[in-house]
Design brief:
about 325 residues; alpha/beta; Rossmann fold; 3 domains; four-stranded parallel β-sheet
Amino acid sequence: MDESRQKYVPHTLTTQEYYRQITRLKKEKNAVILSHYYMIPEIQLLIYEGGIADFLGDSLGLSLEATKVEQQNIVFCGVNFMAETAKILSPTKNVYIPDKLAGCSLASSITKEDVRNLRKQYPGVPVIAYVNTYAETKAECDVCCTSRNALSIAKSFKEDTLIFLPDKFMGENLRRRIYAETGKKLILWNGTCEVHEQFKSDSFTSLKAEHPDAKMLLHWEVPEQTVQENISEMGGILGSTNDIINYVSQSKDQTFILASECDLGSTLKRMFTGKEFITPCVKCSYMKMITLDSILRTLQSIGTAEERFYEIALESNIIKAASIPVKRMLQYN
């Protein structure tokens, strides 16, 4: 059997029955559930809203929450690199992911060997890794970054050339701003997010015609041409998920076109009920591997021989090495 995934016949429960069983098991297993914004709405729903999620956020925000909770067991509803980051920051806690096959095209685009080869090719050039990377990749880099603090981190280096990996579109969007403000140049890796790369400039032609007063909400991982053409025409924001949420909360505009994962649209609609959000519905297939059923199975496995199918296991030397660039990143949050 594939050790990364247990084979089982799914339960056939109603959503409310899943909620009841998951809530009961969280208490029994001393567990907390962290839900990413790209989860299906039923998983995003917070406890006070009648759901099961203890925290809702982006990958780094959730990993930071994991360091604060009293519970020993963390069920991370996201993709593998996110759960790994939580483990790096909370090495004495048990971190589980409901499906170990929930990967990431962007994180998979670069390996630790690739970083070592880049260092040989560009000796002495600092390496900045987007947090959307696997632990072994992080361990080879000088510092990690989020889309919110990448500019501040770039400014902190005395060198005039930096390596940024792995997202080439995010790198292209950052490169323009970093060069304008610091004069520094970025060497980019050719990695992409299979969701955000689909947002081409012509993806929004009909939507903009139908909603001429809408503002654009664009993630850093969207192609640079899409960003430049649409922001200049419609206005809006290029930023992280939290940047987008903050922009909408402060904006007097009522209609927005979103270029990010489809279920972030569900989050925004729930947060801002009086506003309208339109998006070409592009879903992350990896995120959708996490289901109420797999969350229930994960909780049932804790403390049994089956937990190996869900627990994030990182070697201590990887945790130690990767924690250095991750903790450096946190100085700029």
